Amino acid sequence: MADKKPLFEFKEIHVEVEGKEVVRGVSMQIFPGEIHAIMGPNGSGKSSLSNALMGHPDYAITKGTASLDGQSLLEMSADERSLAGLFLAFQYPLAIPGVTVANFMRTALKSHRGKEADMSDFRKLFLKEMEALSIDRAFATRYLNEGFSGGEKKRVEILQMSMLKPKIALLDETDSGLDIDALKTVSDGINRFHNDTNGILLVTHYQRLLNYVKPHHVHVMIHGKFVKAGGPELALQLEEKGYDWIEQETRDKVEA
Amino acid sequence: MADSAKQKHEKLASLNADYAAKYGFHDPVDYFHKGAKGINHEVVEMISRMKKEPKWMSERRHEALDIFFSKPIPLWGNTQLLNEIDFANIYYFMKPVEEQSTDWADVPEYIKKTFDRLGIPEAEKRFLGGLSAQYESEVVYHSMREDLKKQGVIFLDMDSGLREQEEIVSKYFGTVVPSTDNKFAALNTAVWSGGSFIYVPPGLDVKVPLQAYFRINAENMGQFERTLIIADKGSRVHYIEGCTAPIYSTNSLHSAVVEVIALEDAYIRYTTIQNWARNIFNLVTKRASAYRNATVEWVDGNIGSRLSMKYPCIQLLGEGAKAEILSVAFAGIDQHQDAGAKVIHAASSTSSRITSKSISKDNGRASYRGLVKIYKNAVNCKVSVECDALLIGEEARSDTYPTMEIDNDQVKVEHEARVSKVAEEQLFYLTSRGLSEDEARLLIVNGFMEPFTKELPMEYAVELNRLIELEMEGSIG
User: Fold this and answer.
1) Which residues is A65 bridged to in the sheet?
2) pLDDT at res. B13
3) What angle do CA B196, B283, B391 make, to 5 degrees?
4) Which of A78, A80, A31, A52 is nearest to A199 (CA)?
């Protein structure tokens, strides 16, 4: 283990939104094949962290470093980060009127491969992935996220992930707004994507996604900091007891 | 500030270079006839004489010229730009060749090359039922499929139309757009040359589009084509026009008049993709009359030009007639697209739908100017107006001047206007998938135009997307 290099690493990251510090020095290493989860109550800075790592212009990283597969990330624009192998499944994916899911997917693949994908190859792959995620074929010609239900949007995010095959996928509250069937389908999609060479970072408020996608490591984030780390059992504890006890523990630590 | 002005200037230069590469080339031409610059009764007389026209047309021209002189430059719209037009510095008539050809092989090499570069003969082979190619003032090539001819479809350039179908022309010419309508309609009537004449016999469905392509080549050229389309009872036809011109430092004027008549139960779609160079003043009067249960559709794409003023109009004259006006305008650096639509409901149970989409980029300005009029005795009418503007960059401007004059209360009217910006959030979403910011912006713009693009034949949709890509390149915004 010791000589293995992390696939994805960030150190002492601070994030500001509109001048206010929302992430206050967090670090993590994800090795190939690992699934990590960041759990935390609303407003803890989890989503800000994932947006900042992806390069959202409103989320400024004021301190810290991040690298993916040995490449330093923070000087890169969002598209360069994507091409380097980073992916963010959005909590609230945006509608792009007039742009069909299929057209968008082809355009994104073209950016990644540097050339137009062969039409019939693309079609085959695209239909296969759609089927696996129980997305109706009709969605290929619908406008991206326009009029989609919450669950449909999340499935299409996972569809994009399975097509683009990133090295590291940040999944921001991918379980929110999903009913139990959709949760299972989406989880299956994530598990199918996962392999020994890539890594996943799940960002979630609730434990329920973690019943289906098993993390190796769980980090608890409160007030912009990682305050506790553990294995999958930590998620269960949180499910049972909520976040209050950790907040209490943190306060105690500070006072002591 | 100086830097940004300089940057803008360079930007414009490079955009012009892009346009130049594809459309902006020009031919050094020995014209068969090139009159003097400026406009007066002698010029009108010369045009009429060269065309060996019937007397009534010649009289109509002179009468129209007096109307042109008597009318002031419009006092509305972009009057500042309108007043830049120097009527004395324009060639009103240039005849490139002595005779029109029906075979590309007979078209002079330099003109043929022009149209080859624009892909016109290729398009004719692949999917058109007929093609007319106008170069400066006259149509240099014209041809139509034999089967359509046999079925009785008449598709001629307007000059030949007047010679060969004088009865129909004299019956309809100037009935939809009279010379008195506006200053530029009067000018067109005085000096018109070229354009298309189409007559579709009753009940016939022309399944393939008929196309005309208008090319301005010379500097300070005025192109004044005149188009007249008549779809007889129960017939159907789709007409497409395209336009380009080279770039010069001085302005050229394009001022067409288009008259469209859909008799009972007829259907006419008129599609325009114009891609003028940035020094063209494009002041066009397009109007249609739709009789009982007839449908007229204007599908109007405006790219390029310095100033466009164009408000395709449909007069719904018979019960059950339908109007559809779908337009898109792209206003880039230093451009003003003043486009819109006009529908007159003069009969009951008529319906109209106007969809206007505009994109303003850099300091470009797009205006929607619309009028819907419903007469008192026209009851049970339906109207829907939707204006959608997209702004790119901080300086881009869009304005909307919708007017509704509704003289009875038995109508159903829907009106919607939206102005949006390319949102940072949308850009981030797309760039996070690997698209560069320019690609992301282009995709958003293409998506915005999709309701328009999808109405075009495939080939034109592809071409339009390419044009937009050109316009979007290296967006400053």
Assistant:
1) A11
2) 58
3) 115
4) A31
pLDDT in tens, A45-98: 999 999 999 999 999 999 999 999 999 999 999 999 999 999 999 999 999 999
Whether residue A67 is contained in a domain is answered as yes
Q: How far apart are CA B444 and CA A168, in angstroms?
A: 27
Higher pLDDT, B251 or A210: A210
Is B177 an interface residue toward A (CB < 8 Å)? no
Between B76 and B64, residue with greater pLDDT = B64
pLDDT of residue A143 exceeding 90? yes
Asked if A96 and B424 come within 8 Å (Cβ–Cβ), the reply is no
Residue A209, in any domain of the structure: yes
**Domain for residue A231, yes or no?**
yes
The pLDDT value given to residue B309? 96
Q: Does A152 reside within a domain?
A: no
What whole-number distance in Å separates Cα of residue A146 and Cα of residue A135? Answer: 15
What separation in angstroms does the CA of B138 have from each of A147, B224, B279, B316?
Answer: 50, 10, 21, 32
* Count of structural domains, chain A: 1
The pLDDT of B69-85, averaged and rounded, is 93
CB contact under 8 A, B433 and A90: no
CB atoms within 10 A of CB A124: 11
Q: Write out A152-189 in H/E/C secondary structure.
A: HHHHHHHHHHHHHCCCEEEEECCCCCCCHHHHHHHHHH
Q: What CATH number should be reported for the domain holding residue A71?
A: 3.40.50.300
pLDDT at B179 over 90: yes
pLDDT grade for B232, boundaries at 50, 70 and 90? very high
* Check: complex ipTM more than 0.90: yes
Distant-in-sequence, close-in-space partners of B330: CB < 8 Å, separation ≥ 6 = B302, B303, B304, B337, B358, B359, B361, B364, B366, B468, B471
Domain that holds residue A242: 8-93+165-255
- Inter-chain residue contact A82 with B429, CB threshold 8 Å: no
Mention every residue, 6+ apart, whose C-beta is less than 8 A from residue B181: B285
Smallest CA–CA distance, residue A223 to chain B, in Å, is 25
Which secondary structure element, helix H or strand E, spans residue B41, and what is its range?
helix B41-50
Task: Give chain A positions within 8 Å (CB) of B462.
Answer: none
Residue ranges of B 419-448 with Cβ closer than 8 A to chain A: 423-426, 428-437, 439-440, 443-444, 446-448
DSSP conformational letter for B278: T
